[in-house]
C-alpha cells in the first residue's frame, strides 16, 4: 500500500512538474508598426511554426498604426519589443531621448520607390522631372522625397506632386490620371497585378538604386525590457531571426502561417507581399554584412539622412548610443 501511495505521489509530482514547465513560458508583447501582412510574416512564423514556443516564449501581438506609435508604445511599456522604422526611433531619441533601443536590422534597405507604367517615359529617378506623381499623405516616403530627388539633381519643384488616399494610387496610375506614384517595395505584387488586369506592365524604381541607402524597419525594444529580462530578449531575438530565415527559405509556408493566424488574409496575397519584402531583408547588403546586423557606418549614414530629411541637428544624436548589438546571435 505504501509503495502504491509512493508511486501515486511520484506520478502526481511528475504531472505537476510537467504542468509547471508548460506554464513557465516567458510572456512577451510584440509591437507591430502597422497592420498584419506579408511584410510582417516573421512574427507569425515565430508563433505558428513553433520557434517562439521552442525558445520558451509566450508571445502576444499588438497591432500598430505607424512607427511613431510603435516607438511610443515601447517607450511607455505597453509592449516589450517590436518593429518600427529606425528613422522614427532616431528622431524620437534625438528630440525626446525615449527609453527604446534598436537590437537588430530587419530591412537593410529603404522600402521607398517610384512606380510607373511601361510607356510613361519613367525608367529612372531622373525621368520623374516634369511628371505628375501621386503619393499618400502620411507615408514616410514623403520625408525622404527631397533627398532622393536631390540625389539625381532635382527638387520637388521639378515634379507635380499630388496627395491622394493610399487605395487610390493604383487606380490613378492604371487609368493615366498620373504618370507615376510613390509607394513601397512591399507592394510590387499588388501593383503588378493591377497593371496586368489592364494589359500594362509596371516599372519599379527603388530609391536605393538612386543613392538613398539606409536602414529602415528594425527590431526595437523597451530599455526596461532589455535591462530586466535580458535572457528573454536574447531568446526572442534568436527565435525571430530563425523565423526570418524560415521565411526566406519557405515563403509559401511562411505566408500560410500568417493566414493561419489572421484568417481574413489570403495566403496567396500574403505570399506575394512577403516575396516583395524579402528583397529588403535578403540582398547584397545581407550577403556582405550578415542578417540583422546594424553596421556602424551604415547606421551613421542613416542618421545623417534622417536628420537632413527632418531638419534635425545631426549633432543631437550619436546613433551608436541607441543600439545594442549584444542581443543578436553571433555578435557578442
TrEMBL record:
Biological-process GO terms, alphabetical: thiamine biosynthetic process
SUPFAM superfamilies: Periplasmic binding protein-like II
Annotated Gene3D superfamilies: Periplasmic binding protein-like II
SsuA/THI5-like domain residues: 41-254
Record bears the keyword Cell cycle: no
Signal peptide, first to last residue: 1-24
Superkingdom per UniProt: Bacteria
Parts forming coiled coils: none
Keywords: Plasmid, Signal
Classification via PANTHER family: 4-AMINO-5-HYDROXYMETHYL-2-METHYLPYRIMIDINE PHOSPHATE SYNTHASE THI11-RELATED, RIBOFLAVIN-BINDING PROTEIN RIBY
Name of the protein described by the UniProt record: ABC transporter substrate-binding protein
Originating species: Qingshengfaniella alkalisoli
Amino acid at each position: 500500500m505504501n509503495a502504491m501511495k509512493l508511486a501515486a505521489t511520484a506520478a502526481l509530482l511528475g504531472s505537476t512538474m510537467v504542468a509547471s514547465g508548460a506554464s513557465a513560458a516567458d510572456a512577451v508583447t510584440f509591437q507591430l508598426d502597422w497592420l498584419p501582412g506579408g511584410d510582417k510574416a516573421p512574427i507569425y512564423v515565430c508563433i505558428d511554426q513553433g520557434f517562439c514556443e521552442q525558445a520558451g516564449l509566450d508571445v502576444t501581438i499588438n497591432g500598430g498604426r505607424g512607427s511613431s506609435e510603435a516607438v511610443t508604445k515601447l517607450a511607455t511599456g505597453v509592449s516589450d519589443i517590436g518593429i518600427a522604422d529606425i528613422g522614427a526611433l532616431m528622431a524620437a531619441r534625438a528630440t525626446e531621448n525615449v527609453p527604446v533601443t534598436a537590437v537588430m536590422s530587419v530591412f537593410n534597405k529603404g522600402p521607398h520607390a517610384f512606380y510607373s507604367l511601361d510607356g510613361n517615359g519613367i525608367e529612372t529617378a531622373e525621368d520623374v522631372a516634369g511628371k505628375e506623381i501621386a503619393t499618400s499623405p502620411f507615408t514616410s516616403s514623403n520625408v525622404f522625397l527631397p533627398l532622393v530627388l536631390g540625389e539625381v539633381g532635382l527638387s520637388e519643384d521639378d515634379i507635380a506632386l499630388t496627395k491622394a488616399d493610399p487605395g487610390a494610387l493604383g487606380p490613378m496610375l492604371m487609368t493615366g490620371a498620373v504618370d507615376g506614384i510613390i509607394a513601397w517595395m512591399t507592394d510590387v505584387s499588388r501593383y503588378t497585378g493591377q497593371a496586368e488586369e489592364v494589359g500594362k506592365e509596371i516599372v519599379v524604381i527603388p530609391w536605393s538604386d538612386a543613392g538613398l541607402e539606409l536602414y529602415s524597419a528594425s527590431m526595437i525594444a523597451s530599455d526596461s525590457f532589455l535591462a530586466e529580462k535580458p535572457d528573454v530578449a536574447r531568446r526572442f531575438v534568436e527565435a525571430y531571426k530563425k523565423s526570418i530565415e524560415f521565411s526566406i527559405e519557405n515563403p509559401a509556408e511562411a505566408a500560410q502561417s500568417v493566414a493561419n493566424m489572421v484568417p481574413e488574409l489570403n495566403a496567396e496575397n500574403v505570399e506575394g507581399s512577403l516575396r516583395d519584402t524579402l528583397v529588403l531583408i535578403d540582398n547584397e547588403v545581407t550577403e556582405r554584412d550578415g542578417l540583422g546586423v546594424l553596421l556602424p557606418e551604415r547606421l551613421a549614414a542613416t542618421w545623417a539622412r534622417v536628420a537632413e530629411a527632418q531638419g534635425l541637428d545631426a549633432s543631437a544624436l550619436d546613433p551608436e548610443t541607441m543600439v545594442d548589438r549584444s542581443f543578436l546571435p553571433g555578435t557578442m
